[in-house]
Amino acid sequence: MSERYIHIFCGTGVGKTSAALGKGVRAAAEGKEVVLIQFLKEQQSGGSQEFFKRLEPEIRLFRFQRFPDNYENLTEQEKEDEIHNIKNGLNFARKVLVTEGADVLILDEILGLTDKGIVTIGELRELIDAVGEGTELYLTGTSECRELWPYVDEVTELSTPYRSDECV
Fold this sequence. Notes:
By secondary structure, the protein is an alpha/beta fold.
């Protein structure tokens, strides 16, 4: 891919991270370098971080969250500290884009940061503007961030699964 490409996976449904990661795995299989930055992801059991370590150097995982608890459960001081960590992650993402440090950059759950007032639409727009030729950017999160849609190539909305018993 010689052109830049930007894709948003958003909505209340499950599978946003999986879809973006699938794009990353495909790119890695083609010999591209992939960077995955996760925001506000709870510490997961089951060794997912160890799994990602096995995918290096083709897919590199970065998490700037330091507290194991969910963001909403943190004290005000811990939230301030976590916001600082998240801003470091945002700066790292910007650096990856500006220095062309990866062919594919996945910013997992970054869209949800807008709902919490941690990241602005303007900051996300700056990231989009920093995407160079030959770079793919995937943004995920529950927030739609419709203000960004005119600036991206594709949007996939995932909704809560339909259940046949709801339609009577």
